[in-house]
Amino acid sequence: MHIHILGICGTFMGSMAVLAKELGHHVTGSDANVYPPMSTQLEAQGIELTQGYDPAQLDPAPDLVVIGNAMSRGNPAVEYVLNKGLPYVSGPQWLADHVLQGRWVLAVAGTHGKTTTSSMLAWVLEHAGMSPGFLIGGVPQNFSVSARLGDTPFFVIEADEYDSAFFDKRSKFVHYRPRTAILNNLEFDHADIFPDLPAIERQFHHLVRTIPSEGLIIHPTTEPALQRVIEMGCWTPVQTTGAGGQWQVKLLSEDGSKFEVMFEGDSQGVVEWDMTGQHNVANALATLAAARHVGVVPSMGIAALSAFKSVKRRMEKVAEVRGISIYDDFAHHPTAIATTLDGLRKRIGDAPLIAIIEPRSNSMKLGAHRDGLPESVVDADQVIWYAPANLGWDLAGTAALCTVPSIVSDSLEGIIERVKSQAQPGTHVVIMSNGGFGGLHGKLAEALK
């Protein structure tokens, strides 16, 4: 079958393309922006990519068009599909029908940490010899591919609350029907499709409604929004993590790189790993709880976590030039920025830390998170904010409220010059964006030489 995917370079759609190819389909696709790491992965899989949405790519007609949620009415390829009556489906629906049917699905949902936690969970199951399938919105370094079918019943999926398609406004995760569900946390995000936090809570409850009574829901005790979701009605056993929960930790190092895991008061062992930050400790606890549900004893899960490598673009050290360390991070929400910088600060002590931040997500562009931004960067020594041309609010006003030195730049060249003038050997530079950021990482590394 020839499947053509519109919006193929999105992390979800690109991963879905890999699975369709593995099932034996002829897969092609197009996107407005074709950039790594997804484009590299797809080309390595032999999937043909087209830049842009010229309807010519749909002639001769494919057997099925999978339409990504970034596509909207008015897009030339979308209009062609509708006018010609071509068969089409959303990505989550295709996945539910052709991959997840009949599998034991382990889903990881939440505002933050979905990619990292689902990568951890897939790795823990792999380490235990369970060869899971998975679909992850990033490239886990333990696997070097973002999706695979796997040859056992187990399938780990990053369960996103974003909508499924222009013709299906339900959250993607409603399609997945998990047996084991991690609800990591819940804050307001995706301001382009959700009016407020209660609207997102309602979608999370739609997910809870689909989890069987023989399944398991795992969530932290510290998230009031998730507590409200559960109180709307829950038909599934629940395990909790963190203070007062069944799963707890004793930190053995301040930066979260070593901690003891407790389940119902009993020590299960010690995780010692390369990750930092309280958020990753919380991700690890949820992972161990989910893995135990499918039969992985905690001591085995702990051994796996100690060998876990992070996900590409999640505090990934991409260069070290003249003693200056450059990191690539996906953080695009004040909470994620704050926890990431806090983890690095605890690891590097008093070393100079420069944060470069691009407000690129739809919620950021709409200004939904701007009030939280000044507080999110307190662990940096200085911040460079990048103001793209289409930003609809006053970034300079926000930068002025920061308690650490902050400047706004409207060019990559300006950012590079600023870092060159400030960074000394021993400085750590974190570049935060959920896009390619114009290749800033490579350009900065080159300039620092």
UniProtKB/TrEMBL annotation:
ATP binds at G110, T111, H112, G113, K114, T115, T116. Keywords: ATP-binding, Cell cycle, Cell division, Cell shape, Cell wall biogenesis/degradation, Ligase, Magnesium, Nucleotide-binding, Peptidoglycan synthesis. GO terms for molecular function: ATP binding; UDP-N-acetylmuramate-L-alanyl-gamma-D-glutamyl-meso-2,6-diaminoheptanedioate ligase activity. Its cofactor is Mg(2+). One of its GO terms (biological process) is regulation of cell shape. Residues 108-291 form the Mur ligase central domain. It catalyses: UDP-N-acetyl-alpha-D-muramate + L-alanyl-gamma-D-glutamyl-meso-2,6-diaminopimelate + ATP = UDP-N-acetyl-alpha-D-muramoyl-L-alanyl-gamma-D-glutamyl-meso-2,6-diaminopimelate + ADP + phosphate + H(+). HAMAP family: Mpl (MF_02020). Its EC number is 6.3.2.45. Belongs to the MurCDEF family. Mpl subfamily. This is UDP-N-acetylmuramate--L-alanyl-gamma-D-glutamyl-meso-2,6-diaminoheptandioate ligase. Residues 313-435 form the Mur ligase C-terminal domain. Signal peptide: none annotated. Reutilizes the intact tripeptide L-alanyl-gamma-D-glutamyl-meso-diaminopimelate by linking it to UDP-N-acetylmuramate. Residues 2-99 form the Mur ligase N-terminal catalytic domain. It comes from the Bacteria. It is an enzyme of class 6 (ligase). The keyword Cell division applies. InterPro entries: Mpl, Mur-like_cat_sf, Mur_ligase_C, Mur_ligase_C_dom_sf, Mur_ligase_cen, Mur_ligase_N, MurCDEF_pg_biosynth. Pathway: Cell wall biogenesis; peptidoglycan recycling. It comes from Pseudomonas moorei.
